[in-house]
Amino acid sequence: MGYSLDFGWLRDAAGAIAHGAAMTLFLIACTTVFGIVISILFAAARRSRYGILRKAVAVYVEVIRNTPFLVQLFFIYFGLPSIGIRLDPVVAAILAMTLNMAAYTTEIVGAGLDAVPKGQGEAAFALGLRPRQVFVKIILPQALKVIFPALISQVIIMMLESAVVSQIAVRELAHEADLLQARTFRSFETYFVVTLIYLALSMAIRRLFVAGGRRVLGAGVS
């Protein structure tokens, strides 16, 4: 018995798919902003003179990188209510994604900081710049330029991982796809379309980051 493709349902489902894609973009936008800011702070903390900060960040990174993202998500959404902390599904998803992404990008940013020649900082100090000015204006821009390709890849990986948050009923793209295939019984067509959308989102995010990176960090970003 042959299988006949049918994409007729797509017209009625376009709104739901668009909503799911928009939610996916919202999740990754929030995660990227919060995650990169946290990773910069944590990468700097791992290189501070305070041992307790270095150890705390190291423990956080190891815990997150060595446990499944799904378990982290369930701990935040299902576990925290046991001690009186109840979060909206979208808030829980953003928190889980941010904590997960920041653990990986902390190491990426740290590698960039280590790649900047020490002479750059020493020269800045010799000119009378304060430590914060040296880090923000001299060290960090050079580090970000070095790690930019890895940073983009991590953002895209996290966008793809966002499909996991459908498990706590966040209506992102994967969740909408699951609802559609349950209604239409067209699993092949549904997931074929959604796969193309994820691919398009990945390419769009990469191009957007490259364009933004070239504008902020200058030529050489790719």
From TrEMBL:
Keywords: Cell membrane, Membrane, Transmembrane, Transmembrane helix, Transport. It holds the Pfam family BPD_transp_1. PROSITE patterns: ABC_TM1. PANTHER family: ABC TRANSPORTER PERMEASE PROTEIN, MEMBRANE COMPONENT OF AMINO ACID ABC TRANSPORTER. This is Amino acid ABC transporter permease. Belongs to the binding-protein-dependent transport system permease family. HisMQ subfamily. It is a multi-pass membrane protein. The keyword Ribonucleoprotein does not apply. It comes from Ensifer oleiphilus. Residues 21-209 form the ABC transmembrane type-1 domain. Gene3D superfamilies: MetI-like. CDD domains: TM_PBP2. InterPro entries: AA_ABC_transptr_permease_3TM, ArtM/GltK/GlnP/TcyL/YhdX-like, MetI-like, MetI-like_sf. NCBIfam families: HEQRo_perm_3TM. One of its GO terms (molecular function) is transmembrane transporter activity. GO terms for cellular component: ATP-binding cassette (ABC) transporter complex. The chain crosses the membrane at residues 20-45, 57-78, 90-113, 190-209. GO terms for biological process: amino acid transport.
